[in-house]
């Protein structure tokens, strides 16, 4: 049987979601806990692979097992896992339903603190030394909808077969001294959101004009875009499916 897990995690202590050699990952912790409790080797497939330090408020993974699971597995798994990983629910799906390939959209949020804040040092980019023009950044957001090839925001030397993405939403909001960038798309390239945010900040500080974003995208060159924003300000907040 195939099961889906809905969970969340604080990415501070992890080198991303996906298992990698000689580095602790969320996937490793999840599979170790499942395998111990179910007494069989469990492999999971996640909805995406977040970078080092990136958080997830809502993410899914699937796994297969020959056992029929009871309602107590969520509680037992939460008891076994470290405090920075939380299981929300576990439920059965069709045997061919896929956590990554059947996702219809993904939504990320990025947080920037406009003042020096000791309580958000590890959860938002501290960008208080220079002001940011949110109106210019939102003007640039509208340009993102004109394109689908985001090679300029893709991490170099990856196994991507295509850099085509369809962005559904992109906007900046301010709440007090904090800026939040929300972006939704059918898929994201590795490092894409952080590269977009880094470029938007260059627009917000006046280094680039909003219309310069067109040339950045059309160059299809990672060097044309801004430096990637720090990972600790990024959160995967939703993954959509047609269950």
TrEMBL record:
Formation of pseudouridine at positions 38, 39 and 40 in the anticodon stem and loop of transfer RNAs. NCBIfam families: hisT_truA. Belongs to the tRNA pseudouridine synthase TruA family. Homodimer. Its EC number is 5.4.99.12. It catalyses: uridine(38/39/40) in tRNA = pseudouridine(38/39/40) in tRNA. Residues 8-102, 148-242 form the Pseudouridine synthase I TruA alpha/beta domain. This is tRNA pseudouridine synthase A. Keywords: Isomerase, tRNA processing. The keyword Isomerase applies. The active site is at residue 51. Substrate binds at residue 108. GO terms for molecular function: tRNA pseudouridine(38-40) synthase activity.
């Amino acid at each position: 049987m195939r099961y889906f897990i809905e969970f969340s995690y604080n990415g501070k202590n992890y080198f991303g979601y996906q298992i990698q050699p000689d580095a602790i990952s969320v996937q490793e912790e999840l599979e170790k806990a499942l395998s111990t409790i179910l007494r069989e080797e469990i492999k999971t497939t996640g909805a995406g692979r977040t970078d080092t330090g990136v958080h997830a408020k809502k993410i899914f993974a699937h796994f297969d097992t020959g056992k029929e699971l009871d309602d107590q597995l969520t509680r037992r798994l939460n008891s076994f896992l470290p405090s920075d990983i939380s299981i929300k629910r576990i439920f059965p799906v069709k045997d061919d339903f896929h956590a990554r390939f059947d996702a219809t959209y993904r939504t990320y949020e990025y947080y920037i603190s406009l003042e020096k804040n000791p309580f958000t040092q590890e959860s938002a980019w501290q960008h208080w030394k220079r002001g940011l023009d949110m109106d210019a950044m939102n003007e640039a957001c509208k340009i993102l909808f004109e394109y689908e090839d985001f090679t300029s925001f893709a991490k170099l030397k990856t196994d991507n077969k295509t850099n085509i993405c369809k962005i559904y939403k992109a906007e900046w909001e301010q709440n007090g001294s904090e800026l939040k960038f929300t972006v939704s798309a059918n898929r994201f390239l590795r490092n894409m959101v952080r590269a977009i945010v880094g470029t938007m900040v260059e627009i917000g500080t006046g280094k680039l004009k909003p219309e310069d974003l067109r040339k950045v995208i059309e160059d299809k060159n990672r060097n044309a875009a801004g430096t990637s924003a720090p990972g600790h300000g990024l959160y995967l907040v939703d993954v959509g499916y047609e269950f």
